[in-house]
């Protein structure tokens, strides 16, 4: 992945743009209360960005190059800026502020696990912090290039050259890859053998296998394919104290499975250099159907029922009324509904689906007959909860654009708008209360001129996730402070209502305070002891995850 | 569970006996080469057993009683002997030797988590070791009452009074229990709400929820219901350093899930006092069908195919040819085959099922239609691999007697026979090699006069378990040395062939040497650091699991 083809200041490929149409601008200006239309708030040029000078001199760079190779060492402005932060709204605000408080003193692109180990040794010797960087799509401050307290500097370790397919073993249901492989390359390699991992997070195109494991990721179809916790078999890890090959057995009772500690370790315990995962045959067929429910409550009841009784589902996604309404209106801005669509809307209105109606998408993958039966079962269960089948149309649109939403953020940010997301999970019982409390908190912090949308995207037998998206007029004076006040309010509400601070985004810098509140002090002490064992001088990814 | 109703020197309830019939004795004498018939090797009387005196005096016992209550403190001979060791063949040899090298200095029956914490405080103050004891059915030396190096004595903590049902929440798919609850009590409580945990290890009747988690247990139907790793949500744990409430979220990316460290912790990190588990609705129907394969290879190929493609199976159990043949012959000793059975056997012979034929049992649980489809699919896949459906008969017999096998061990031990089991797991690819190597190793150590049987009992997409049972003439002079020589040969063969030292029995004292070889030194250092954090003076279950 050539970094120069990617935006340093926003999402994705430079050659892929998403502009706001006039209709979209007018609609947002109206909804968000910009009376004079959306303002122009362009991003600074790379050359204008203030950033601290590199603290690593030529002599030490030379020594580094001796270890990792000349071509692996980068200190130019683009590389330092590109790797300074991740891809959260919070990160983009820092880029847009025109000034980066921190940036890597050098960016290293190792081409082998040995080079990674060598670099860690060099960093320990020179008292440098090291930030492992896969795709850099963290939205929780997971790759911020902070030296941490008392370190002489910070190196970002870009793992994208570790992208080899090591082996695909369909007969054993396993495959091994170097950990810096990107989503599309991994799935293409598997597709060549008729297999899939089935891990499709929204960041799929720009995130890596190692990152998925380190961030405890969950793909959109994790109901069917599992989260990183489920498909991760084992890894080779470079740590400051030693190299570590974790357990790789299909199952074992030889003590606790310490490999599991890597899932969610966020580059603080070691650098995952290669990993083995469980793969599956590519499904014979995929179905993605939409259903409309009279309200969120009935949709949730149906989701719970399906999650507890139907193991054939690959995905279940339920939007609340606000999200259903907003997405329908926003879509209509650039594509007028057909007569048939308008007639169907009228029919739905007559059947009692009004402003509170909620859209559910349900996917099933597998053999033709299995999927067919799953579809029929879902339609039947949905019907029992007042749901109306809408067919394959809405799902098709969602599927085709499922990696596109992040591209919308940059033009919004260019026009004075703020947009962020956060997510949590709880038991089914606790979900409605948590939903109401987090919405109240975000609304209270954003103010009346905002759009707040929520969906359930991952369901389990004992609970589900909640994903909140909020769009609001950005405070032109101190947008970072504004962001923190919303984040703080929402996170406090999550804690007060027995949610988790993250279902799949992770902890990073941004959630650290709340993870400290969420986990029992004994859990935190254990985490700290594992950190001290593997990384005794604390050089790996300082400021993230570890209390 | 009144301990006095149980055997201290063997398996299960005193009022439940399994004697060897004359036919069985004659058959075993012939197969095992006892020319004068099976010898008499009775177990000593409780009163004859030599055991060390308790090192805890009256004053300290009084202080203990102040913390946990008078009725919770036991130092009588029965209690000390009953809790001296677990239920392995190795343990029974120690009991049968007439002399116990160690026994608990006192047995404590706490009735609350607070009493457990109080006891741990007392133990730390008096430099005593503490052995957590659920049902005591460990077969790897997991509950041996060892004081360890430098401790002044050892207390066994019998958790069977912590047996309360705390809450069954069918709507959330969860239930919470005090951790000392036995299998039947737990399932009865759940059955009252139409639910099940579905965890049925062979020890089910005499093992506890906390033990299942601590030993990383897998029930017989773990294909359908998962192992402890899958159904365990969270726990409250008393540790010598603090009480610990683990994560309880349905899913979270708030860092590594430290609760997972408890799964396989074997009482070395803390005492699980209560636990929350994922439960399911009781299945509408259960099917258990048998199939015969021409040989182990074709059975394995079918097992692999089913494990990788059919998620509806609750259990898949494949016996090798030796096990299939032995069980058929042993069963025929007390139940002559009917004419129909003999005719069917003749038919099977004509169809090419000879001495190499292997029996497979496949269970499916769920809705009537789902189970019906699963059965049809299994029959079809089995047919593709040369398998012949045998109907429901063999499965019915297996199911009805599935908790009975351990009762057979005691009469065998009374008649000069040795019997032990061990188990491992590996990837599908590696399984045939591992199977052959472990069989060779056991055969080599047991000698020609032995019976060796193997089955696959737990299957995964990427591999399966192997379970070996071996019956042999016990060395009358040094049976413990004989046992070690077999154990060592088999365990070395497992290590040399990339198996795990245990699929579901655990580590305890007996497997410690091999776990140290199996796990990477970094994994061992992590385990050690977690131990030091939670139990800094090493008072919990010394000698087990921790390197």
Structure description:
The structure is a homodimer. Chain A has about 550 residues and is an alpha+beta fold. Helix content of chain A is about 35%, strand content about 20%. Chain A is built from 19 helices and 18 strands. The first copy, chain A, has helices spanning about 20-30, 60-70, 75-80, 90-95, 115-125, 185-190, 210-215, 220-225, 230, 295-310, 320-335, 340-350, 370-385, 395-400, 405-415, 430-445, 480-495, 510-520, 520-535; strands at about 75, 105-110, 130-135, 155-160, 165-170, 175-180, 195, 230-240, 245, 270-280, 280, 285-295, 315-320, 360-365, 390, 415-425, 450-455, 465-475. In chain A, the strands form 4 sheets. A 7-stranded antiparallel sheet of chain A has the order 15-12-14-13-17-18-16, with helices on both faces. In chain A, β8 and β9 form a beta hairpin. In chain A, α10 crosses α13 (about 370-385) and α16 (about 430-445) packs antiparallel against α17 (about 480-495). Chain A is globular, with a radius of gyration of 23 Å. The mean pLDDT of chain A is about 95. Chains A and B meet through β9, β11, α10, β16 and β18 of A and β9, β11, α10, β16 and β18 of B.
> Biggest interface between protein chains, with counts per chain?
A-B, 87 and 87 residues
If you average the pLDDT of chain A, what whole number results?
96
Q: What structural class do you assign from the helix and strand content of chain A? A: alpha+beta
Categorize the overall geometry of chain A. Answer: globular
**SS element count, helices of chain A:** 19
Helix content of chain A: 25-40%
How are strands sequenced across the largest beta sheet of chain A?
15-12-14-13-17-18-16
**SS elements, strand count of chain A:** 18
Beta content of chain A: 15-25%
- Radius of gyration of chain A from the CA trace? 23 Å
Unreliable runs of chain A: none
Largest sheet of chain A: 7 strands, antiparallel
Looking at how many chains there are and whether they match, the oligomeric state comes to homodimer
- Separation of termini of chain A? 33 Å
């Amino acid at each position: 992945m050539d970094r120069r083809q990617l935006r340093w200041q926003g999402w994705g490929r430079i050659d892929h743009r998403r502009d706001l149409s006039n209709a979209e601008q007018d609609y947002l200006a109206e909804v968000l209360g910009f009376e004079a239309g959306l303002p122009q708030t362009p991003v600074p040029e790379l050359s204008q960005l203030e950033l601290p000078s590199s603290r690593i001199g030529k002599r030490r760079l030379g020594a580094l190059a001796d270890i990792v190779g000349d071509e692996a060492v980068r200190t130019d402005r683009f590389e330092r800026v590109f790797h300074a932060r991740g891809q959260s709204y919070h990160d983009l605000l820092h880029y847009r502020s025109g000034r980066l408080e921190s940036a890597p003193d050098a960016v290293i692109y190792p081409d082998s696990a040995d080079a990674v180990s060598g670099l860690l040794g060099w960093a320990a010797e020179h008292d440098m912090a090291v930030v492992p960087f896969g795709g850099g799509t963290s939205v929780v401050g997971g790759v911020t290039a902070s030296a941490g307290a008392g370190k002489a500097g910070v190196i970002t370790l870009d793992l994208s050259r570790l992208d080899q397919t090591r082996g695909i073993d369909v007969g054993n249901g396993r495959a091994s890859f170097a950990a810096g492989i990107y989503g599309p390359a991994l799935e293409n390699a598997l597709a060549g053998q008729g297999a899939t991992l089935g891990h499709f997070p929204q960041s799929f195109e720009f995130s890596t296998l190692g990152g998925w494991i380190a961030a405890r990721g969950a793909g959109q179809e994790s109901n069917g394919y599992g989260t990183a916790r489920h498909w991760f078999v084992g890894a080779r890890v470079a740590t400051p104290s030693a190299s570590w090959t974790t357990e790789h057995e299909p199952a074992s009772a030889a003590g606790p499975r310490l490999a599991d500690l890597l899932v969610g370790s966020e580059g603080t315990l070691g650098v995952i250099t290669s990993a083995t995962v469980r793969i599956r045959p590519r499904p014979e067929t995929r179905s993605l159907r939409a259903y409309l429910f009279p309200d969120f409550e009935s949709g949730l009841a149906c989701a719970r029922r399906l999650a507890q009784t139907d193991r054939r589902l690959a995905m279940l996604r339920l939007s609340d009324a606000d999200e259903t309404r907003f997405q329908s209106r926003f879509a209509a801005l650039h594509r007028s509904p057909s007569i048939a669509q308008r007639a169907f809307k009228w029919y739905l209105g007559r059947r009692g689906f009004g402003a509170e109606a909620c859209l559910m998408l349900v996917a099933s993958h597998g053999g033709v007959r299995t999927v067919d039966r799953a579809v029929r079962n879902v339609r039947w269960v949905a019907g029992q909860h007042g749901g109306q089948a809408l067919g394959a149309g809405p799902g098709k649109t969602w599927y085709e654009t499922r990696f596109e939403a992040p591209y919308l953020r940059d033009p919004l940010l260019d026009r004075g708008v703020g947009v962020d997301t956060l997510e949590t999970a709880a038991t089914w019982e606790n979900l409605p209360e948590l939903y109401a409390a987090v919405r109240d908190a975000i609304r209270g912090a954003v103010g009346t001129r905002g759009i707040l949308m929520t969906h359930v995207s991952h369901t389990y037998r004992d609970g589900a996730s909640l994903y909140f998206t909020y769009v609001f007029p950005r405070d032109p004076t101190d947008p970072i402070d504004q962001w923190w006040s919303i984040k703080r309010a929402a996170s406090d509400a999550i804690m007060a209502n027995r949610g988790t601070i993250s279902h799949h985004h992770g902890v990073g810098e941004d959630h650290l305070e709340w993870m400290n509140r969420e986990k029992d002090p004994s859990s935190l002490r254990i985490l700290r002891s594992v950190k001290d064992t593997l990384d005794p001088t604390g050089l790996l990814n300082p400021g993230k995850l570890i209390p």
